[in-house]
From TrEMBL:
This is Cysteine dioxygenase. InterPro entries: CDO_1, RmlC-like_jellyroll, RmlC_Cupin_sf. Belongs to the cysteine dioxygenase family. It comes from Branchiibius cervicis. Residues 90-116 are annotated as: Disordered.
Amino acid sequence: MSTPSVSSLGIRDFTSDQLIRIARLFASDDSHAGQVDLSVTERQRIPLDSTAHLEVWLMVWPVGSSTGWHDHGQAAGAYVVVTGELIEESRRGGRPPTCCSIRAMSGHSARATSTT
């Protein structure tokens, strides 16, 4: 199966549901598996498609890797874990961090807001 280009969507602002559908569409395309090197020791970010308003990446996090605390500003996004499990910790405002486990092929969306 070949994933259609997101440039054909013609959309500027995406809802959480739309972002999850796009993430699931790309995640279900087995042709991307050839781009993954599971022997890497650091996080990989492989661009798959983009428009002026949307970027689609294939990301690989080796076991035990971390991105550290970072801020996505006003970005909105969605991701699907294709293989394994992703442990996500998030912090909003002055609240204590929350942690969740996302298992393979479950969709998740996040609408990040700046805390500064």
